[in-house]
Design goal:
9 strands
Length: 268
């Protein structure tokens, strides 16, 4: 755990020493929250999705986020162009599997991207990770079914072995898988009652990957979000909870992360 905290500390310091450009190709539902989250951790968001400009924007970015929520033909064209340019320029890519467990269009697009390109981090909730692993739909919506953590660990391991990506499965216990596997148990159930919080986690992962393309970078991003929400008063309503969450995210210090992180390495 001490070794993990040391690596997280180094990534945290580097993140706040730099002001990287994070290109977020996302949906209208989450775009404002994601842009503000990126700004809150000292990075610069760019939310271009026009197919005629995304190649230029991506080429000049330090990290790329692809979010599959509320997908359109227009954005599919932009996604394909951006991923190609990012790979050509060795720019880290976070692929957020929003809705792939409910839509054949999104699942097929994901499989096409993964077959043709190198993705740094694959992120999804439990159902989305399962659907990608078994290459079939598994739910009627974007929320996770009640799936066992051990099953998800195996899905994550299979995806990492197949695509050589860091795999993040979000749920009551967050799973981060590469050559090592960590279980993260921070968070607050109120997150599931606010739109786009999962998308925001994806944008934070894109931020930390801009300084370190490692499993520790993904752990830091998830922990920053989850610890920020834990610090919000338990008695406030959802609107106040959301404001408190983003207030805390904009002010979170390394000592707060170090003191509160609940991470456990899975022994093989």
């Amino acid at each position: 755990m001490d070794n993990l905290k040391q690596k997280l500390s180094e990534i945290y310091s580097e993140l706040y020493d730099k002001n990287n450009l994070i290109h977020c190709l996302t949906n209208a539902i989450s775009i404002n929250d994601m842009a503000n989250a990126v700004l809150s951790v000292n990075q610069s968001p760019f939310m271009a999705d026009n197919p005629r400009e995304v190649e230029d924007v991506t080429k000049n970015s330090d990290s790329l986020l692809i979010n599959l929520g509320n997908i359109t033909d227009y954005r599919i064209e932009s996604i394909k162009k951006s991923v190609r340019i990012a790979n050509e320029n060795k720019i880290p890519i976070t692929l957020d599997l929003v809705g792939v467990s409910a839509s054949r269009l999104r699942l097929d697009l994901t499989l096409e991207i993964l077959q043709k390109h190198k993705i740094t981090c694959i992120k999804g909730n439990y159902s989305e990770i399962k659907s990608l692993c078994i290459e079939d739909l598994s739910t009627k919506g974007v929320d996770s079914k009640k799936l066992e953590v051990n099953d998800l660990i195996n899905y994550c391991k299979n995806l990492h072995a197949k695509y050589h990506s860091i795999v993040v499965a979000t749920g009551q216990t967050d799973i981060v898988c590469a050559n090592e596997i960590y279980l993260l148990n921070n968070g607050d159930e109120r997150l599931s009652k606010i739109t786009a919080t999962g998308c925001v986690v994806g944008s934070l992962i894109a931020c930390t990957l801009s300084v370190s393309q490692t499993i520790e970078a993904c752990i830091l991003a998830i922990s920053m979000m989850n610890i920020s929400c834990e610090m919000v008063d338990k008695n406030v309503g959802l609107s106040s909870f959301k404001i408190g969450l983003y207030d805390n995210l904009s002010r979170i210090k390394w000592e707060q992360i170090k003191e509160n992180i609940n991470a456990r390495k899975v022994e093989s």
